Amino acid sequence: MKRTGLLLIGMLVVTGCLTYAWRILPRQESDLYIQENVGAMQEEPEPAEQVIQRESEQGYAYGKLPAEKQELYLEIRDALINFEEDVRLSSCDKAEISDVFQCVLNDHPEIFYVEGYTYTEYTLGEILKKITFTGSYRFKQAEIAEKQKLIDAYTERCLSGMPAYADDYTKVKYIYEYLIHNTEYDAAVGDNQNICSVFIEGRSVCQGYAKATQYLLNKAGVFATLVLGHVVGGEGHAWNLVRIDGEYYYVDTTWGDASYQAVGTSTDYPAEKIPTINYDYLCVPTEQMNLTHTLDNVVELPECSSMAANYYVREGFYFTEWNEEQVERIFHEEYEKGSAYVTLKCVNEDVYRQMQEALIERQEVFRYLDCPEGIVSYSDNEKQYSMSFWL
Questions:
Q1: One domain, residues 120 and 61
Q2: Higher model confidence: residue 51 or residue 93?
Q3: Alpha helices in the chain, H assignment, sequence order
Q4: How many domains, the chain?
Q5: Do 369 and 298 share a domain, yes or no?
Q6: Domain-terminating residue out of 311, 346, 374
Q7: Cβ contacts of 296-302, under 8 Å, gap ≥ 24
């Protein structure tokens, strides 16, 4: 008996973030399920064994799968890249196929044209003998080629502006900032589950931001993979895992593309002074990410414990203890650079409370700020132990 099913990538809109929702259509509701007699007790001849080059795959999710799932991964990957139809899979477990399909997409943002897949079950009586796989595509191959040209042009523009001899941290920071400056958050834009929305439309949601970050970092020679999960409130979300100098960190470009809300801002505060980048989500450890994000990834992710490449540590804005001289130096340097605002980050709640008491409650911040009207605009983030001041 032959039975065909459909699995599509669905879009789930949740408070401005999109993620994957999987749906199997019931047989009675779809003509995609077809029963067909394939022979009373006759088995179909076994196809020739596929020869797949394992060493050609370097994806993070692939490396975390057991050997039998790696074989399935390569079958699905090659079918999607080569637009193959009715590829016999080495697994008959539909849940396993779904998970591994997700792993392939997590590792390969360049496979932007895949919408889902169809599968066909072959049975003898009640015994499932095999499953074949065919990808479902958003675009025809000619359209894919044209979109790839636009993606290549964007990538060239972006990477050509990267500082010469940049180390991995500098590359991550540059791409984080470049995407934020050149992308608008828009849940209504098309193709927002893939890189086309960012590279062609300049508008996207969390999954588009994360896949674009992964794509550009990989092109720049920096390891990055896609991470799926949820954020405070239960909304589905996507971000990235990166590796810098052998250590892993999380990066959330979507949450970096957000202006702080100033406390006590006067109504005529200059719009150009309002920041567009939030650095709280640039190279952060697991402990900090867990304050606002919850992992729901297909494969296991490493514990990120280093702060060496964290933005605030690298830029000198990180406080392991309350230090007035460090505060004075930071404000002086940021005024010299013409910065619009400055963010100070603390190692823990105790240091954060000391900073809050000194700068806000005792109003010592006026010693460092040039504000002749006696008005200070600032925001504080208790979850991230950080305070931002507009200059």
A1: yes
A2: 93
A3: 60-64, 67-82, 94-107, 141-160, 168-182, 196, 206-219, 253-256, 286-289, 311-315, 324-337, 349-356
A4: 3
A5: no
A6: 311
A7: 296/228, 296/229, 296/230, 297/227, 297/228, 297/229, 298/61, 298/99, 298/102, 298/103, 298/106, 298/228, 299/60, 299/61, 299/64, 299/65, 299/103, 300/64, 301/227, 301/241, 301/248, 302/241, 302/248
In this prediction, residue 146 carries a pLDDT of 96
Phi-psi region of 270 (alpha: psi -120 to 50; beta: other; left: phi over 0): beta
Query: pLDDT value at position 190?
Result: 83
The whole-model pTM stands at 0.83
Q: For residues 152 and 272, state if they share a domain.
A: yes
β-strands 293-295, 224-231 pairing: antiparallel
Please say which residue of 138, 173, 206 terminates a domain: 138
Q: What is the pLDDT of residues 335-350, one digit of tens each?
A: 999 888 899 999 999 9
Print the domain residue range for 286: 140-311
- With a cut of 60, say whether residue 19 has pLDDT above it: no
Give the pLDDT band of residue 33 (cuts 50, 70, 90): very low
Residue 194 has pLDDT above 60, yes or no: yes
The phi-psi region of residue 374 (left if phi > 0; otherwise alpha if psi is between -120 and 50; otherwise beta) is: left
Contact between 173 and 167 (Cβ < 8 Å): no
How far apart are alpha carbons 106 and 111 in whole angstroms?
Answer: 10
**What is the mean predicted confidence (pLDDT) over 25-33?**
32
> For residues 199 and 214, is the Cβ–Cβ distance under 8 A?
no
Closest C-alpha to 38, from 159, 120, 145, 138 = 120
Residues 122 and 166 in one domain: no
- Report the DSSP beta bridge partners of residue 203: 184
- Let me know whether 157 and 304 are in one domain: yes
**What pLDDT is recorded for position 191?**
83
Find the farthest-apart pair of alpha carbons in the chain and give their distance in angstroms, rounded.
91
Let me know whether 236 and 263 are in one domain: yes
